């Protein structure tokens, strides 16, 4: 048997197939090492800037107000996903919607370590209508229709174009309550998970990259598989490693 990276063989594989597969494995090993090197650089970055105001969102069928600080509950980390569904869009982004489909089924696992919610620019009634249509029951859904959250964090363009992002906020140890005026404010943006997409004016998007969040420092690992980065590698592993969610 020809000696290669390992001795595992599939039925009836050819020597040409094995040579090509070993070449692919070598490239994957090199890629993994590069990912680990980038991850080390990411962990060395400082925290992001303090949150300047305690944003008030709308939630539920009665559109009751809820503050950003209240979204943490008993957790020190908040994951806030910007859902691409602007007030002028006929339909929400299908790619974002597929992500929320998955998150709705996994949110009870994520909540063991961090608070999580999704926020859209559309009025809460429109967001709730989508939730009913999709059968979402667990994911916390919010509207930023009456605040500047989306504009402040660059998820809405001047023409109303929507862009997706997962912002990770941490409640810093310098206070138990949120005071939006420095130096007593105790919320910091620690990372953004960026998903680049085409304009949402037509209601379509094509995400091509994502960053990986970490609770203690900004992160910047990119992946073409959004749901894997969001629900498997990014959130639980990063927060466990930091120890910030306890």
Task: Describe it.
With 246 residues, the chain is of the alpha/beta class. It has helices spanning 15-43, 94-110, 124-134, 149-152, 226-242; strands spanning 56-59, 64-67, 77-83, 115-120, 141-143, 165-171, 187-194. Strands 2-1-5-4-3-6-7 form a seven-stranded mixed sheet, with helices on one face. α3 links the parallel β4 and β5. The termini are far apart.
Secondary-structure blueprint of this entry?
Blueprint: H1 15-43, E1 56-59, E2 64-67, E3 77-83, H2 94-110, E4 115-120, H3 124-134, E5 141-143, H4 149-152, E6 165-171, E7 187-194, H5 226-242
Parallel strand pairs: 3-4, 4-5
Antiparallel strand pairs: 1-2, 1-5, 3-6, 6-7
Helix pairs in contact: 2-5
In short:
32% of the residues lie in helices and 16% in strands. With 246 residues, the chain is of the alpha/beta class.
Key structural traits:
elongated; 16% strand; single chain; seven-stranded mixed beta sheet; alpha/beta; 246 residues; Glutaredoxin; disordered C terminus; 2 domains
């Amino acid at each position: 048997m020809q000696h290669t990276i390992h001795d595992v063989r599939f039925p009836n594989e050819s020597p040409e197939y094995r040579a090509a597969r070993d070449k692919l494995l070598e490239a994957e090993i090199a890629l993994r090492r590069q990912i680990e090197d980038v991850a080390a650089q990411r962990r060395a970055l400082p925290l992001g800037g303090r949150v300047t105001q305690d944003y008030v969102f709308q939630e539920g069928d009665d559109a009751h107000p809820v503050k950003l600080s209240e979204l943490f509950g008993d957790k020190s980390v908040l994951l806030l996903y910007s859902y691409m569904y602007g007030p002028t869009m006929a339909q929400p982004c299908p790619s974002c919607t597929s992500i929320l489909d998955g998150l709705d089924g996994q949110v009870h696992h994520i909540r063991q370590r961090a608070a999580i919610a999704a926020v859209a620019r559309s009025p809460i009634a429109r967001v709730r209508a989508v939730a009913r249509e999709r059968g979402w029951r667990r994911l916390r859904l919010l509207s930023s229709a009456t605040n500047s959250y989306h504009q402040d964090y660059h998820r809405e363009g001047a023409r109303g174009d929507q862009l997706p992002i997962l912002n990770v906020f941490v409640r810093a140890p310098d206070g138990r309550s949120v005071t939006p005026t420095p130096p007593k404010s105790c919320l910091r943006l620690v990372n953004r998970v960026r998903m680049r997409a085409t304009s949402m004016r037509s209601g379509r998007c094509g995400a091509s990259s994502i960053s990986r969040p970490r609770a203690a420092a900004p992160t910047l690992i990119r992946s073409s598989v959004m749901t894997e980065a969001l629900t498997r590698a990014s959130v639980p592993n990063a927060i466990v490693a930091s120890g910030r969610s306890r």
